[in-house]
Amino acid sequence: MEAEAADGPPSGLEAALSCFSFNQDCTSLAIGTKAGYKLFSLSSVEQLDQVHGSTEIPDVYIVERLFSSSLVVVVSHTKPRQMNVYHFKKGTEICNYSYSSNILSIRLNRQRLLVCLEEAIYIHNIKDMKLLKTILDIPANPTGLCALSINHSNSYVAYPGSLTTGEIVLYDGHSLKTVCTIAAHEGTLAAITFNASGSKLASASEKGTVIRVFSVPDGQKLYEFRRGMKRYVTISSLVFSMDSQFLCASSNTETVHIFKLEHLTNSRPEEPSTWTGYMGKMFMAASNYLPTQVSDMMNQDRAFATGRLNFSGQRNICALSTIQKLPRLLVASSDGHLYIYNLDPQDGGECVLIKTHSLLSSGTTEENKENDLRPSLPQSYAATVARPSTSSASTVPGYSEDGGALRGEVIPEHEFATGPVCLDDENEFPPIILCRGSQKGKTKQS
Predict the structure, then answer these.
(1) Rounded Cα gap, residues 72 and 89, in angstroms
(2) How far from the centroid of its chain's Cα atoms is residue 306's Cα?
(3) Is DNA damage among the key words of this record (predicted)?
């Protein structure tokens, strides 16, 4: 859920907002600027807490945080072929990797880290950063479009399978094999995303008028939503709510659309014996005799709710999150602000803007850092506490030569939890016990 911002605010070095991304469970927001990067906690509506900021690497255009841990991945325009992995709470660099061309996007969950180049995707084991697979047989992907399921028990990967059509390749990040291909759209893909469990995959084409949801891993179409008919738009963000009940889409227009994932029953109540009811029945019956494209358009579901921005043409990303026990729509924009809306999960309609935060002027305190790294409230996806690891430390270098680095730090063995991991101090994942800075090396293709 990352976007490279275009035409950011011109005032000052730091004001040039270059990228922004929500973490995997939408409890944190990361931004990249000309001066470095910042991380914010999204636990309150009224206050935007900055939990970390760094100016060590300038001109950041990719920044991704692993849930609410201290692990953050950063890529800078000064070295666009190098990925840097940091433990920001310890103030240390875990490792860095260099690739054969510019890095376009990065995705990560608790077991896998994906690095997407224009003509290749690298899959790393996040436990020791060993390179597991290099996917080379992909069409040119100039925007770095790809998706990774945040559920580490399946780690599905999705990426475009064609330059000219909206074909999606579904790949298993565990077995490292292709699962299936999905003919999602006639036009080229613009956005793809998994739900939290990895059981659904949503997509939109460059036209931006129709959004489809498919089952995983069989690729059957489950839902079809129409975003609009009057104009084509550029979909910049597509995201499920953590409970998979809603799907949110933002674009270069002033409207953010929220769709509700529910199937209407075939048995509808009888329409009242009025002229309107009679015409409604006739209209639906007539759709059976219309051309397929027209009939499909009539049967597509419309937005359940919308959020209105006071601008258009700005790059933005959206998220659906529970903050202070209530559902919220979040929109981060290249104008340097985070917009928070109330969402009515029952009646929908137009979401009400309740707070606007500047992303370029928030302070940070040690208390905010500590609060951000504590377990979340039970309503959050990241609330469950993992089983503590009792295994002894391994003596095997964590970043071996066949993993793409010349040498590396020692990583203790770690048992993956069945649920989200509680990340705090020495128990953080990956549990780094020694880190001395940069470990250069080039990735090895497989």
Answers:
(1) 10
(2) 20
(3) no
C-alpha–C-alpha distance, residues 153 and 151, integer Å? 5
Question: Whose CA is closest to 261, among 277, 242, 275?
Answer: 242
CATH number at residue 243: 2.40.128
Q: Which residue's entry shows tokens 């179409």?
A: 221
The total of structural domains in the chain comes to 1
pTM of the full structure = 0.77
In a domain? residue 14: no
d(CA 29, CA 343): 19
Q: Are 121 and 112 in contact (CB under 8 A)?
A: no
Residue pLDDT, tens place only, 194-221: 999 999 999 999 998 899 999 999 999 9
Rounded Cα–Cα distance for residues 188 and 185 (Å): 7
Question: Range of 346's domain?
Answer: 236-263+277-362
- Residue 436 included in any domain: no
Residues forming a β-bridge with 134? 122
Indicate whether 194 belongs to any domain.
no
SS3 for 366?
helix
Interatomic CA distance for residues 52 and 87, integer angstroms? 11
State the chain's maximal CA–CA distance in angstroms: 79
